[in-house]
Design goal:
single chain; 335 residues; alpha/beta; Rossmann fold; six-stranded mixed beta sheet; globular; binds pyridoxal-5'-phosphate
Length: 335
């Protein structure tokens, strides 16, 4: 029989497009966005999830049809783990703050994950006594090591390696080594430490700009490091950061709207934070090749965007239905 060139969905992780944001580029400063929602489960977190699961398989920590993967997360890591782990034959349980949007919870349930809800803040906080999600996940997993495996993205070096081995090299080759500044929001720190370590090995004067959220933020996936301790994973390599920017809710949502109008991109809020930060730095420079990581698209954020006045419901629907920048996601295949 002739072989069929089918891939497992997990093999589609990575190799996301880099696009130029032409309406923002000037003669001397070029703006590019790495569109991470082209990953099969819709965000940059597919990379970390895939690397962590592969690493656990290599170490013999997972048994197909038997093991349950459990993780505390407010969104994208849960979706990524659920999509990837379930398609590889593992069950998934997610410990999630109840404040997380209904859209996100629905995606997780549709993918087949079991949810445990806590009354945490939006992002699980790292640090003594502040983090119910992490504590609950550990409490469920600890007595049953034969059954449960908790990747723990806050400490797991496979999260860093995902970006050192995939995102970083992709950016380097997609820009032909011309990248001068890299911008990303920070949660666990996996993306920034992995990409930055790789890029700086290639070209030591690449500037790395880390974006944290303001306190009391609405920017899912990002973290404020005064409110919440820096995760161990980030601390190990935090020296790679050259410059910090604190993104506000207001600027991030305004820039998400601007990206829709000027580039026809329906982005998630943290991409608004990244764009606002790129423009802030561009104001101070004569030239550069800027790459910003756009971690997810706006499809999970209708309720938030309408609530914040970023888009009216009708505007949002037009953007979502125009679909120019929105590939079909793996979790939407049955709809
Ligand atoms: C929605 C979202 N998730 C995750 C990340 C990156 O997270 P981490 O630092 O955990 O790699 C970002 C970064 O911009 C983000 O915007």
């Amino acid at each position: 029989m002739e072989s069929i060139a089918a891939q497992n969905i997990v093999e589609r992780v990575g190799n996301t497009p880099l696009i130029e944001l032409s309406s923002f580029s000037t003669k001397n400063i070029k703006f590019y966005a790495k569109l991470e929602w082209y990953n099969p489960f819709g965000s940059v977190k597919d990379r970390a999830a895939y690397w962590m699961v592969k690493d656990a398989e290599k170490k013999g920590l997972l048994k197909k049809g038997k093991s349950i993967i459990i993780e505390p997360t407010s969104g994208n890591t849960g979706i990524a783990l659920a999509g990837i782990a379930i398609s590889l034959g593992y069950e998934v349980e997610i410990v999630i703050p109840e404040k997380v949007s209904g859209e996100t919870k629905k995606i997780l349930k549709d993918l087949g994950a079991l949810l445990h809800e806590t009354s945490d803040d939006l992002c699980p906080r790292v640090g003594a006594g502040t983090d119910q999600s992490i504590a609950l996940a550990k409490a469920i997993a600890k007595p049953r090591p034969d059954l449960y495996y908790m990747p723990n993205q806050y400490e797991n070096d496979a999260n860093y390696l995902a970006h050192y081995e995939s995102t970083g090299p992709e950016i380097w080759s997609q820009t032909n080594g011309k990248v001068s500044h890299f911008f990303t929001g920070c949660g666990t720190g996996g993306t920034i430490t992995g990409v930055a370590t790789y890029l700086k090995q290639k070209k030591s004067d690449v500037r790395i700009i880390a974006i944290q959220a303001q306190q009391n933020h609405l920017l899912q996936g990002l973290r404020n490091f005064e409110e919440s301790a820096m995760p161990e994973l980030f601390k190990r390599r935090q020296g790679v950061v050259d410059h910090w920017i604190t993104a506000t809710n207001k600027d991030s949502f305004e820039m998400a709207r601007e990206l829709a109008i000027r580039e026809n991109l329906l982005v998630g809020p943290s991409s608004g934070s990244v764009m606002a930060s790129m423009l802030e730095i561009a104001n101070e420079l004569q030239d550069g090749v800027f790459v910003g990581l756009f971690a997810d698209d706006g499809r999970k954020f209708k309720s938030l965007y309408v609530d914040q006045g970023t888009f009216t419901s009708a505007e949002y629907d037009v953007l979502q239905n125009s679909g120019k920048n929105l590939p079909p996601l793996a979790y939407q295949k049955n709809r």
